[in-house]
Amino acid sequence: MNLSKLNVKLRIAVVQLNPQIGCLDETISRAKHLISIIKPHPPDIVVFPEFALSGYSFHSSKHIEPYLYQVTEGPAYELSRHISKQLKCYTIMGYPEKVVSPNDRSINDKCFNSAIVVDSSGEIAFNYRKSFLYHTDENWQCLENPAGFQTFELPFKKKGRDLQTGEMHDVKLKTSIGICMDLSPYKFEAPFHDMEFSSFQVENDSELIVCPMAWLHSSSVTNQDEDSKQKKERLTKALKEQGLPSCGSQGKYQIDIEGADTATEIPACKPLESEQDHRLQMRDTNYEELDQPDVSNVNYWLLRFLPFLACKLRKSWFSERLLVPVIQKFKSGRTSYLGASTDKSWLFEKKEAILVLANRCGVEDGITAFAGSSGIYKFNGKYGDQEESLDLSNKSVSLLGNLSKGYEGVLVRNVDFQVRRPKPQFMK
Fold first, then answer.
1. Which end of the chain, N or C, is more open, meaning fewer C-beta atoms within 10 Å of its C-beta?
2. Which stretches make up the CN hydrolase domain (predicted)?
3. Residue-wise pLDDT tens digits, 258-275
């Protein structure tokens, strides 16, 4: 098929919040304040974290019940509509969803961990439900997405420039959403190298991947910890030493808007370099240096997108036909392994894609610390025969900007990437 290359330019905003259960109005107020700051620089997409307004650590069905809403009702829907109509953009926001049986009220509501997509007219463009559940989701009888991972099209008017003719075209981007645990091995039991979510994206040619998250910082106390008492004491001490309440920082913002000189209480994160990267990663086990990103988690997230990263080992797997028996073992129709297939050594080669990670920050229950560090990344599909590193130093990925681990704020970046489309699609 004869394809045209389109250069797509978008402006993407990521809002990082520290929502606390029972403090809905306060969280909405801070969210609106951050949106007011970016209003002079309107984005094409605004992305919020998982459970962006409600808080995350619910312990039972009864605990979460007041915060469950159907897709076209509730605070997340109303705020998303407000933002989308005000800024003429898409808004993507995580929220607790309930599905009510229309014919039989005796049937219990189904509950999901969901992300709503609202278009510029305030209409629902898509509603994604989390596929892989964390144990906190299971506490309140959350259900897995019966459809599994999904893709959908997001249309943008006059955002694609034909590299041959220079003409501007409407473009529909193949988009996918993953919510936090979706990036991890299923139930933490599947083989680490299965890379279920990112393999799905590569095999389905996703161009825009958006991940609302409530990802934990390593200082969090979890039900797997044997030293839970000591970890809680260390976290409490870290918060006290930084003059913070038990919930962490709220209302002190880090503002990083490309192309704008905006006053901010917390300076923007400096571009990560190898020496700084190593220094910060050594300290990521403690809840400190909250104005810096959680580099350990940033590198882990990228590792979970290994199918998009250049890796020269793939060529030997391909040439020696080592992949055939590996891929044949998959039972879900998978056609690739770590980005390689039996037909091509790297499925993502010479392609480009944008990844948006919107993570929350703060602390809940005095024991659950979140990693923040929301960021925007670009995969370039190059250097497949050169790269060995599988972290931020890999030349096939660029970190376009990120926020800190501990402060609320907003990040805005102009992204520029190429997609391919059939030529007849653009004939007048």
1. C
2. 10-417
3. 988 876 778 888 877 654
